[in-house]
Structures are given as C-alpha cells and as structure tokens.
Write the structure tokens for this entry.
Amino acid sequence: MPLLEKIKSLSQAYCTEIVALRRHLHANPELSYQEYNTVKFVAQTLHTFGIESTEIASTGLLAEIRGKNPDKKTIALRADMDALPITEANDVPYKSKNSGVMHACGHDVHTSSLLGTAKILNEIKDQFEGTVRFLFQPGEEKNPGGASYMIRDGALKNPAPSVILGQHVFPILPAGKIGFREGMYMASSDEIYLKVIGKGGHGAAPELTIDPIVIASHIIIALQQVISRNASPKQPTVLTFGKIAGGTAQNIIPDVVTIDGTFRAMNETWRAEGLKKIKTMAESIADGMGGKCEVNISHGYPYLENNPEVTRRIKKAAEEYVGKENVVDIEITLGSEDFAFYSHVVPASFYRLGTRNEAKGITSYVHTPTFDIDEDALAIGPGLMAWMAVNELRHP
Ligand SMILES: [Zn+2]
Ligand SMILES: [Zn+2]
C-alpha cells in the first residue's frame, strides 16, 4: 500500500481512540504551567504506544521516533497542553470536571492529535528515514510562553530540527478544511500597564490638585498617534487600551488612574520602537502636566513567521491528503501565539485545522465558554501531520 494510503487508513483506524484521548483531556483541563496530570497522561499514553518521553520545561514533554537512518534529518512537531480560566457552558459528556478551567482554545485537540500522529509514525517508522521529535509544551496561554522555556531547555538542540510544525484548531473554517499562510501570520503581543500619579482633592478646587484623570485622558488620546503617525501604514499594528480605573465619586479628584492595554506588531524593529515611544510619550505628557506616569511593560511573544518554503511544501502535502478543494489560504491575524518563539529559531510553519460545523451548531470562537470542535476533524489531524512529517523528512 502506498504510504499516503497507509497513513490515511491508520488515521481513520485510530480516530475513536484519539477522540477518547481528547475527551479525557477536555474533561480534565489544567491551567498554564500547572499541567501536572496532563503531562503524566501524555507520557503514559506515549508509553502504551511504545514511545518513551522525557520531561522538559517542568510540565512539558519531549519524545522522538527514530526511523531508518535516524541521524539523516530531524524534524519537530509541536502541541500545547494548557487550558484557560473559563467556566465551560457546554452540556456535553466530556464537560470540564475542573470548575473554572476549560480547554477553550483547543489545546486538548492539539495534544490528542499529536499523540495520534506519534502513534501513526511509530507504526510506519521502518518506512521513513530520519527522526521526528515531538514537543508537548506547557503554558501557551500565559507569558512568558511555554515555548520560550522549551527552547531554553534545549528542545530545539542536539540536533536542531530542520523544520518545526504546529497545528491549531480554527472555528472559522469548517471541519475538513485546512488553512495556510506564508510569511508573517500572527502578531507580537505586549501588555502595557500605565500608572498615572497625580494629587487628589476636592472636585471644586482643582487648583489644589494634580488631576490624574485629565492626564490619563491626554495620554490615551496622544498614544493613538503612536500607531497613526509613527508606524508605517504598510505594517499591521494595533494599540488598544481595554481597561481604565480611577476615582470613587463625581466630586473627588483621585490620586491615581491606571490604564491597561495591549500593543501588537508584525515587525520586531517596529515593536521595540513602538514600545519605547509609548513609554516616552506617557512619561513626558504626565511630567508636562505636573504628574507622573509609571510605565510597566510585560513582554509577550514575538510575531509569528511562517517560512514560505516550508509552508508551500506542507500545503502541497495537505492538498495530497485532503484534496486541493479543502486547502485554503487564510489571512493574517493580530492575535498572538507562542509558537512564534520557535519560528525565530528554526524554519517553522503554523497551520489551521478547520473545526467548525454549522449543522451541528459548533460555531463558537476560541476563548469562549461554548467553544467546542467537530470531532470529525480528529479523523484528519493526526494523519495529516504524519504525512507532512514524512514529506519533510524526504525533502533534501
Ligand atoms: Zn488561546
Ligand atoms: Zn491556542
């Protein structure tokens, strides 16, 4: 049987088992960097497949399947395992048993799908040359990003893989479809925390105060010009302040106002410049008005770069696997994803697995209490990634 057909039939055969794994993970979600039971479960499952793994980055796992001539080439496949602080609203048999925690970003799907890929590749390891490394990582949803710990602890060394691939569920695409994007795909994301310090007092006697509400207002309006007057219009970038807090009553001027925001970019040079601009402007506006502004920036993930050649190759592999009509190009997004860290170390590609099904009422977006997937996607995900892996290993 040709390898493509073999992988397809294995993916189909293992589907029920992979769905069961997904449901177990979904029912037992754990927050970022606390994936203790998840990592045990994944290690155990790999063990039953005959694959040994080692712990890395506290609650991450590394495993390898060595084919024939294992040192010829190494490629890496990645799944994230953490859940979100959301209370699940779905009434399903596999509903979260961990109240207030939910797999609302599909990381249960990524983990179970990659387990399926490992099972398939292990089955056919005498039919490919090279080594496939599996990265099961913690903490995708929370700074500084589990991927940065995986890299720090050597997941991309000894030897460095020539390619790393990541898959993410996509509730915009119907199940059965796969989405790709070459080049810049997702944004860097930094959290901005401004603390405007004035001097409070009576609302009727502003001359005795330094009004932080007025200073904060100026800062918010002025910072919009960081994007409109300093960033190149050719570069996607955004600055949003989503939270402002200060004051207790209509006639009292407070001492302090806080403003929290997010800054996104698709270019590391601009990202650094933009952050500097935000800091300088906020500080000097407050200073000019007699107050003070403390600026704290929590650095998030870099922008995600999908290597064009790798992306073209895996897209072609996907066309072979699911048919050309089921492979689509997707737009850039200003969302962020810690897979981006890998993409700045080795050639990488991050693609989307369609999981929507209108007929079944599965349409909720990720990070919502009603998010779910059409599990038919799990008949495709594991085999598709295995086929991509085999193709990458064949590539000279
Ligand atoms: Zn997420
Ligand atoms: Zn995610």
Summary: The chain has a mean pLDDT of 97. The pocket of zinc ion (ligand 2) is lined by residues 105, 107, 140, 168 (CB under 6 Å). The radius of gyration is 24 Å.
